[in-house]
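Query structure, 437 tokens:
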């Protein structure tokens, strides 16, 4: 890279980070989730606003596909996602622990599988021809709609939990553990939809026979085996992992997990989450205090720079003026949200969760966020869905995430507890406040 190219990249990063923090601060002042402001900053700097007002400035700021600015910003965005999930995996306690399994099973079987099946069935009897893309048949379209109705955003809900300082709670572990298993199946369904759109029956068979089992095996090893091996490494190394070395060790572990997962074509979200989970000692988390300083350093750097860049670029990629249809948006947003929240709430009640907490779980699991946007983008680029459905999926992903953050924040302010556990900055056991929140 030349000197001017480096300067352009640094200016772009400075503008994105600065705008994300300013608009994010404004969102917090309005009692909205911070990430909503960060996404809005990206929308303002992206093609939807700046690209229309000053196309040349917008193009210079975000770069063109394949040029150095675009590539570096894309890497910074991915690094922000990895750091967010790494910090979440290290902070969450008791993910998939025995006391969570009953609720997890009920939510997966009733709160996820049933809405997915109903969306498939209802979609099959509705006139959806106008929602089909140029290369997508009815089967692929229905799979995309059903998946979009049942997906939960791990990155967004993790950011909400971090900002609310509840990542350490039983509530957070229930949502994240369930969402992780859920997303394995739903991203498998997306792979099926894209294979159907290509007319590649052989590719579909390979996908079902290899990719999904490999992902499941990676999760099982990351949850059960790897933390025990790392536990022995930490005990054996003892004082070798000096305080100044621990942040570097944490980053090496993160990149190693994600690198192995990438070679196996496993979603990077799972790899980075499991890296943080393994670092602190898995389910027991007995090394959490040992690496507290390292995790605080990683967290501060991440939430100051790369994580806001990730959310800002999510917003910058949106161009919601293309093919927008208000009836399609309202039908999908209202219909899918009612379906998802009602069945997750019912599943939570069957798992002996109180009515008030069951509604909290339902609304949290309805946050579609990044995966909802990724799903819409992949389906649109594959020619499965029309622009009107693409816009509806993207706006639904943002709206449901905003509602989840607002609802949980209000619940904490009003009650000071979730699932019967005290939460909030003043409660015992809360993690130390970070200036990034």
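Result returned for the query:
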């Amino acid at each position: 890279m030349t000197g001017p190219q480096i300067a352009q990249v640094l200016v772009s990063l400075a503008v994105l980070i600065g705008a994300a923090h300013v608009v994010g601060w404004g969102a917090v002042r309005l009692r909205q989730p911070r990430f909503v402001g960060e996404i809005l900053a990206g929308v303002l700097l992206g093609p939807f606003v700046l690209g229309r007002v000053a196309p040349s400035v917008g193009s210079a700021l975000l770069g063109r596909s394949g040029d150095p600015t675009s590539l570096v910003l894309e890497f910074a965005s991915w690094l922000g996602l990895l750091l967010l999930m790494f910090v979440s995996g290290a902070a969450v306690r008791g993910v998939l622990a025995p006391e969570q399994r009953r609720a997890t099973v009920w939510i997966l079987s009733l709160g996820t599988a049933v809405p997915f099946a109903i969306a498939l069935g209802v979609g099959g009897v509705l006139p959806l021809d106008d929602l089909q893309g140029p290369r997508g048949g009815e089967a692929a379209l229905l799979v995309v709609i059903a998946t979009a109705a049942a997906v939960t955003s791990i990155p967004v809900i993790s950011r909400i939990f971090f900002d609310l300082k509840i990542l350490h709670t039983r509530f957070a572990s229930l949502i994240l553990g369930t969402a992780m298993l859920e997303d394995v199946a739903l991203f498998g369904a997306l792979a099926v939809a894209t294979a159907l759109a290509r007319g590649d029956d052989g590719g579909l068979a390979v996908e079902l026979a290899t990719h999904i089992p490999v992902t499941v095996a990676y999760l099982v090893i990351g949850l059960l085996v790897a933390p025990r091996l790392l536990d022995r490494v930490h005990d054996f190394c003892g004082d070798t992992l000096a305080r100044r070395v621990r942040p570097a060790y944490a980053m090496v572990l993160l990149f190693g997990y994600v690198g192995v997962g990438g070679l196996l074509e496993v979603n990077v979200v799972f790899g980075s989450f499991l890296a943080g989970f393994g670092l602190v000692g898995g389910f027991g988390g007995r090394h959490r205090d040992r690496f507290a300083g390292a995790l605080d350093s990683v967290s501060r750097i991440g939430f100051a720079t790369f994580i806001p860049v990730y959310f800002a670029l999510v917003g910058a990629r949106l161009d919601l003026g293309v093919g927008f249809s208000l009836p399609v948006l309202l039908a999908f947003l209202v219909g899918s949200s009612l379906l998802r929240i009602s069945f997750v709430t019912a599943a939570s009640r069957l798992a002996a969760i109180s009515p008030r907490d069951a509604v909290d779980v339902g609304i949290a699991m309805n946050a579609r966020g990044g995966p909802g946007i990724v799903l819409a983008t992949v389906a649109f680029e594959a020619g499965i869905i029309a622009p009107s459905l693409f816009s509806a999926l993207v706006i639904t992903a943002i709206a449901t995430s905003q509602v989840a953050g607002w609802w949980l924040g209000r619940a904490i302010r009003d009650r000071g507890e979730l699932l019967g556990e005290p939460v909030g900055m003043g409660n015992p056991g809360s993690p130390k406040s970070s200036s990034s929140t």
